[in-house]
Amino acid sequence: MGKSTPLKVALLGCGVVGSQVARLLIEQADDLRARVGRPLELVGIAVRRPDVERPGIDPALLTTDADALVARGDIDLVIELVGGIEPARSLILAAIRHGASVVTANKALLAEDGPTIYSAAEEAGVDVYYEAAVAGAIPIVRPLRESLVGDEVTAVMGIVNGTTNYILDKMHTEGADFAEALGDAQRLGYAEADPTADIEGYDAAAKAALLASLAFHSRVQLSDVVREGITSVSKADITAAEEMGCVVKLLARCTLGEDGSIAVGVHPTMVPLSHPLAAIPGAYNAIFIESRNAGRLMFMGPGAGGAPTASAVLGDLVTAARNRVRNGRGPGESSYSGRAMTDPGDVVSRYYAAMTVHDEPGVLAAVAEAFSRHGVSLQAVRQESEGEQARLGVMTHAARHSQVLTAIDELDRMPEVHPGIALMHVEGA
Amino acid sequence: MGKSTPLKVALLGCGVVGSQVARLLIEQADDLRARVGRPLELVGIAVRRPDVERPGIDPALLTTDADALVARGDIDLVIELVGGIEPARSLILAAIRHGASVVTANKALLAEDGPTIYSAAEEAGVDVYYEAAVAGAIPIVRPLRESLVGDEVTAVMGIVNGTTNYILDKMHTEGADFAEALGDAQRLGYAEADPTADIEGYDAAAKAALLASLAFHSRVQLSDVVREGITSVSKADITAAEEMGCVVKLLARCTLGEDGSIAVGVHPTMVPLSHPLAAIPGAYNAIFIESRNAGRLMFMGPGAGGAPTASAVLGDLVTAARNRVRNGRGPGESSYSGRAMTDPGDVVSRYYAAMTVHDEPGVLAAVAEAFSRHGVSLQAVRQESEGEQARLGVMTHAARHSQVLTAIDELDRMPEVHPGIALMHVEGA
């Protein structure tokens, strides 16, 4: 086909991100044409509510029949911004069947059922790109899939959810408790009316599954991720973190064990102030990578928002379009290593345990003894008297999760220790 | 060809980086094969001194005849780590003519004569990748060329030379003067015996040319870069920066002007502590990007060293090899925008000027008046008496370089101002 024959683009979903993508396709048409080698023509936009006012968008492009749009048969590139599992999955699979390459920001779908989509794409010889699904505008999928493909990644850690990072930041800087900080985030539009996906860690867990799959060339699904949200993070936890020279972040943590297995978890985590991830503010995202040869790398940027996410979508769109123009394809899914998941009890981390004890001689020794009995050595202890009781904070050296849990269980049954021991992950060696 | 037929790899140069590349090609052969889809076979290594001991490398692979190696005709991928202009350029062009794709870390050559190489590759239908040429292991070429290709990048700023970053860090943290810090860096192997390329900013300028070319889809060469090294940075400059809440960094700065022209400069620059680049320590590199839609992104990591640079080389090698296996090609050079360079006098920046003046009434007013007369407004002034003299430090608001120079020129001729006014760029709005 000639250089002036447009590549036809269909857009599914026209919300916060979709409307920005449509705008940029029009505004930057000349640049995009020069970068692709052929024009990109937006030929249809599938929406649920065609009557909503959409400034700058030709109403003739709108349709409520997404199925018919992807089945036209002449579409080169489909951008899926519907979100969720269905009908997004069926639409993507139909688009692939009809020979289109797909760009999607759908982390939930890829974390739940990515392999179905990747193998359909492989069979049809088309591309599936999803840079926008993880950490918004931060280029992280392509660096993992291509730049670091000659290296062995041993850990990927990230702040991948801006809402929870904003809330925890607020708790640190303003002494707010969780409910207040959440309320603020909702008023300012950083958190949704139903904040479950963010604050319970589901969103971060889906991204963690994608990051781990890419980093370790293996299939990791949402159900493989050990997940813990931030709803139980208390003011006391925040204060304890500060006393230990740390801040609390919701960290997605993907690590390659010495036995070759993969551990993927999302946990509120104490991060030492000396760690580059500690300084990531407010609604920003950041990904920290450790690899055998490249060493330690960090990427930061806006993790959400219409324009940043649209930038990531368009970067993928140009890449997929270039591949079409050159009759080529990008690298597909790489899951050759087929690694096992680490047993959650075998995950090694440092921990911080906070408890209230009777303030009497011998209690500290008894607590230390309980940890020691289960092979957990202590790195730091803080004790503060409060009348007849004392608050006791204990930071462990790296230990297996099961060992720490057994020690905590034993402490919980000691008469000198009050019920309700708070336990938190601590990052760093 | 079958899946077991190897792709043949030739390595030119086997120094610090090359020996790591050779090691990894052997150690990670199974992973590389799985990621490429076919084995990679190292068939020859061109070296100058074949007698040097090279543990782990089969001496039968060594040759001193690099020309004959690239002219074998059966080589799929050539890795050029010779450095410098010649014979590197001739070897790369010969490799391309013989149908090989090329991976190189040669910033000097690409900044001087990249277009010759890119067009030869375009004509021959092969790839040229050069992630390792800028900021070592930090993935930055691919993010600019692919991830941000749907966006408009407006600025790229970076700490791209670890040697100068180490020296300036040392001057800040230990109060060392330039000569002492350079001596330390040489003793520790962070600076070479002839440190000219680093401390005079040539290395950073070559990287800046490559970054600007990628970011703005235009051809920027080494000769387009306004370059200033760190040899004249004094203890007094460091102290002045600290007093203004800044640190001094050697910054490569590539900006897109409102008139569509490009300014590229390498200068010692005061960076406010609130800027993410201020915190980049020691021998690390970092790149900061501003773009219309993605917003502000930062990438950091080790900027040099054998293993990190080898990681970047191998990432490119796997990508180029995958393209071969799929009969595809990566995106080539993109210089469609053909932008003009901004006249150096028109570059807009904040500046800091330090001078010694007679400590008498009216001098400060006269200095302020001189700036004002040339349209430069002042943001902050610090004056400190030293007997009959005073040290005067002046931070301007953003102004055109020519305006600031004219004001400085006028000050230099005032009897109340001692000769020798120090001028430094200041980052931030």
Descriptive account of the structure:
- Two copies of one chain form a homodimer.
- By secondary structure, the first copy, chain A, is an alpha/beta fold.
- Chain A has three domains: 7-136 and 306-325, 3-Layer(aba) Sandwich (Rossmann fold), CATH 3.40.50; 150-302, Dihydrodipicolinate Reductase, domain 2 (2-Layer Sandwich); 344-426, ACT domain (Alpha-Beta Plaits, 2-Layer Sandwich).
- Helix content of chain A is 36%, strand content 25%.
- Chain A has 14 helices and 17 strands.
- Chain A has helices spanning 16-27, 29-36, 66-70, 88-97, 107-124, 141-147, 162-174, 178-187, 196-199, 202-216, 235-243, 306-325, 363-373, 401-412, and strands spanning 7-12, 40-46, 62-63, 77-80, 101-104, 128-129, 153-159, 226-227, 246-256, 262-272, 284-291, 295-302, 348-358, 378-386, 389-396, 399-400, 422-426.
- In chain A, the strands form two sheets. In chain A, strands 7, 8, 9, 10, 11, 12, 13, 14, 15, 16 and 17 form an eleven-stranded mixed β-sheet that branches. A six-stranded parallel β-sheet of chain A has the order 3-2-1-4-5-6, sandwiched between helices.
- In chain A, strand 9 (246-256) and strand 10 form a beta hairpin.
- In chain A, helix 4 runs parallel beside helix 5 and helix 7 (162-174) crosses helix 8 (178-187).
- Chain A starts with 6 loop residues before the first strand and ends with a strand.
- The mean pLDDT of chain A is 94.
- Chains A and B meet through helix 2, helix 6, strand 12 and helix 12 of A and helix 2, helix 6, strand 12 and helix 12 of B.
- Strand 12 of chain A pairs antiparallel with strand 12 (295-302) of chain B.
